[in-house]
Amino acid sequence: MLSPIDATQDLGYAWLVMNMPFDALGDVSNEALLVAFGNGDRASAQALTMRLTPVVLGYATRLLRDHAEAEDVAQEAMLRLWKIAPEWRQGEAKVTTWLYRVVTNLCTDRLRKKRGKGLDEIAEPEDGQPSQETRLMDKARVSALEAALGTLPERQRQAVVLRHIEGLSNPDIAQILNVSVEAVESLVSRGKRLLAKRLAGEKDRLGFEDDET
């Protein structure tokens, strides 16, 4: 339970954040911004929305492979974050870890409801600036990787995406998936092996390199 001293410190820091100009909030932690929003600061909510929504949306899109559904999940996850803001206390958890866990659960629920249906069409990535040949190759690689990820068992896909795309540590992933660090290592290892097998036929054509790690 939070002591009166800790609560006073949280409120004091929240007051400092609430009185910062918006362009200064970029250096403030997610946790401090959430505490400030919980105490009524709308600018902190705006800063958190701009910072976290792309992260949440990207993760949900990789799990669901459906942008429209991912947008719904991202919106629901952020709404849940706002609801718990008044009760948030710094030092208890990372905001990003909490959000990844919520998004994982929301996506899992949606995938279970859709189980038995065919894989969704994979949207083509937007064109970049390189040459047409390079763009086509990049699109093919992304499409092949996303298609292969989509065939992995649910928990393996979550672990691989969190580790190698989102760049999270194994302990953080363990908290998000509510499993041990050893289980995360096993999920990632098995997922990578299966992913390599799925992409084996595309390796030479698309220029994928072997991953020995």
Written description of the protein model:
The protein has 213 residues and is mainly alpha-helical. The protein folds into two domains: 1-117, Rna Polymerase Sigma Factor, Chain: A (Orthogonal Bundle); 130-206, Arc Repressor Mutant, subunit A, CATH 1.10.10.10. It has ten helices and no strands. The protein has helices at residues 4-18, 30-38, 42-64, 67-84, 95-114, 132-151, 154-165, 170-177, 181-199, 203-206. α2 (30-38) packs across α3 (42-64). The longest helix has 23 residues, at 42-64. This is RNA polymerase sigma-70 factor, ECF family. GO terms for molecular function: DNA binding; sigma factor activity. Belongs to the sigma-70 factor family. ECF subfamily.
